[in-house]
Design goal:
Region (Disordered): 169-189
Organism: Chryseobacterium gambrini
Shape: elongated
Mean pLDDT: 87
Structural class: mainly beta
Protein name: YD repeat-containing protein
Biased composition (Polar residues): 169-179
Low-confidence stretches: none
Order of helices and strands: EEEEEEEEEEEE
Number of helices: 0
Number of strands: 12
């Protein structure tokens, strides 16, 4: 499939952008190409899927025949819920050329339950078994050439009895109870 866009401002020379997409026999996006004017076409993304049609790897950015700028791996649990992105880098001392690592926890909690039980009464981070996310951990490159701390950053989520999000607690690795970037929600119904 090919899309062509002609972009220009009034009084300026136009720019032609071509987007080309390749799909497999199951109509899943396999490759996405991008070309500006007469410059060489570049492969923006190449996707790989498992037998359940879940995205398991995405290679991002390259010119034809060269190594991708980034290779992103995805993992899922038996229910089909995404659980990790670049999981092998979560505990590694460096991210191995990856920009980030991400872990989604549904049925477990490793961080604090509540940073301030007086201020956030009843808004506790607890394991969930219904698809709600209890906690997420991540590590990310914060400056080029520097590896992030091996201690992941963490966000925990609290829900009410009808599964509405009621709070989100950022847990600073140096001080999980700091209450920075903490949000509390209330509903009128």
């Amino acid at each position: 499939m090919l899309f062509i866009f002609n972009l220009r401002k009034q009084g300026e020379v136009g720019v032609t952008v071509q987007e080309r997409f390749e799909y497999d026999s199951q109509n899943r996006l396999v490759k996405h190409y991008h070309q500006v004017d007469n410059n060489p076409e570049e492969l923006l993304a190449e996707n790989t899927y498992n037998d359940l049609s879940q995205l398991v790897n995405k290679k991002v950015g390259s010119t034809s025949g060269s190594a991708p700028l980034q290779s992103i791996d995805y993992d899922y649990n038996i229910r089909g819920w995404m659980t990790e992105i670049n999981k092998n880098q979560m505990a590694a001392t460096d991210l191995g050329g990856k920009l980030f690592s991400y872990k989604i926890k549904y049925t477990s909690r490793e961080g604090i339950e509540n940073p301030d039980t007086a201020q956030f009464s009843g808004k506790n981070v607890v394991p969930k078994y219904n698809g709600n996310i209890a906690e997420v951990d991540w590590r990310a490159v914060e400056s080029i050439g520097a590896n992030p701390s091996t201690t992941p950053k963490r966000y925990g989520y609290a829900y009410d009895k009808i599964n509405r999000l009621t709070a989100g607690f950022y847990q600073n690795p140096q001080n999980p109870n700091s209450k920075e970037n903490t949000e509390s929600l209330a509903y009128d119904l």
